[in-house]
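Input C-alpha cells:
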C-alpha cells in the first residue's frame, strides 16, 4: 500500500472511512474498517493509519474497539482481539469488540471494568496513548465546529454572538489548545523513537487537556442547548471524558511525567526546534 500525506489514494481512503463512520459504530464499524483494510494499514503504514482513523473517530462521534489493535500490535501480539487497558484511578477496563450492554462506565461504549491488567497493555502504552491523543483532538475539533457554527447563527441584542469579544476569546483559546496538542502528537509521531514513552505520554496529556478546555469553552458558547439530548455537544464531551481517563488521565500523566523527569534529573530534547 503506497499512501502519502498528499496522495489522491489517501483522500479517497479518508472519504471511505468517514462514510463508514457516519453510518455505523461499534461492532459494525469494526467490521467495516476491517473491510477497508484497517489491519493491513496498521501493519504497513501505522504513522498514517493511526492519526487518520482515530482523528476521524473523534470528528464523527463514532466509536470502534480499534484501540485494542494498536496496543496489541505495539506489544507484538496478534491484533483483532482485546486486552485489558489502564483506566483512571489505577483501575483496568476491557473494550469489548461485541456490542455488549453498557456498564456503569459509559452508556454507549462497550467498556467494562476488569480485576487486573495485562503486560500487553503496558508495553503498548505509548502507541495507545498516541492513538487516543488523535481521537481526543478529533473530538475537540468537532466540539469547536459546533460552537463556532452556533456563534455564527445565534443572534442576541441584534448582533451575532460571534461578534462578542468573550465568545471570540473562548473559541480562540480552544483552538490554541487543540493546535498545541496536535503539534505534540506530530512530535511523538513514531513511538519506536520514544523508548521511554515520554513524548507519547505528554502528547496524550496535552490532547486530554485540550479536550477538557474545549469542552468547557464550547459549553459556555452554546449555553443551555449544549446540555440537551438533541444536540451533539454533550456526546462529544462525554466521549472526551472517557477517552481522557483511558491509559492515564491528563492529570495523572502530567504527574507521571514530573516524576520521570525528577528521577532522571534532566529533560530530554523531544523536538528539534
Amino acid at each position: 500500500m503506497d499512501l502519502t500525506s498528499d496522495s489522491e489514494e489517501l483522500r479517497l481512503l479518508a472519504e471511505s472511512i468517514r462514510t463508514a463512520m457516519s453510518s455505523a459504530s461499534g461492532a459494525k464499524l469494526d467490521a467495516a474498517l476491517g473491510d477497508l483494510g484497517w489491519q493491513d494499514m496498521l501493519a504497513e503504514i501505522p504513522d498514517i493509519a493511526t492519526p487518520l482513523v482515530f482523528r476521524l473517530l473523534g470528528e464523527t462521534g463514532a466509536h470502534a474497539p480499534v484501540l485494542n489493535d494498536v496496543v496489541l500490535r505495539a506489544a507484538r501480539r496478534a491484533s483483532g482481539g482485546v486486552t485489558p487497558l489502564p483506566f483512571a484511578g489505577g483501575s483496568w477496563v476491557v473494550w469489548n469488540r461485541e456490542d455488549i450492554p453498557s456498564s456503569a462506565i459509559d452508556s454507549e461504549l462497550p467498556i467494562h471494568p476488569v480485576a487486573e491488567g495485562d503486560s500487553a497493555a503496558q508495553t503498548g502504552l505509548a502507541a495507545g496513548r498516541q492513538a487516543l491523543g488523535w481521537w481526543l483532538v478529533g473530538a475537540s475539533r468537532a466540539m469547536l465546529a459546533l460552537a463556532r457554527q452556533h456563534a455564527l447563527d445565534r443572534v442576541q441584542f441584534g448582533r451575532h454572538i460571534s461578534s462578542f469579544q468573550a465568545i471570540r476569546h473562548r473559541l480562540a483559546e480552544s483552538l490554541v489548545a487543540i493546535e498545541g496538542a496536535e503539534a505534540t502528537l506530530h512530535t511523538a509521531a513514531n513511538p519506536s523513537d520514544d523508548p521511554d514513552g515520554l513524548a507519547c505520554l505528554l502528547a496524550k496529556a496535552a490532547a486530554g487537556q485540550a479536550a477538557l478546555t474545549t469542552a468547557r469553552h464550547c459549553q459556555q458558547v452554546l449555553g443551555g442547548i449544549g446540555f440537551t439530548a438533541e444536540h451533539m455537544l454533550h456526546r462529544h464531551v462525554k466521549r472526551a471524558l472517557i477517552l481522557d481517563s483511558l491509559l492515564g488521565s491528563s492529570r495523572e500523566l502530567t504527574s507521571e511525567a514530573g516524576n520521570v523527569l525528577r528521577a532522571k534529573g534532566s529533560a530530554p530534547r523531544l523536538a528539534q526546534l
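Residues 162 and 251 are 32 Å apart (CA to CA). DSSP finds eleven helices and five strands in the chain.
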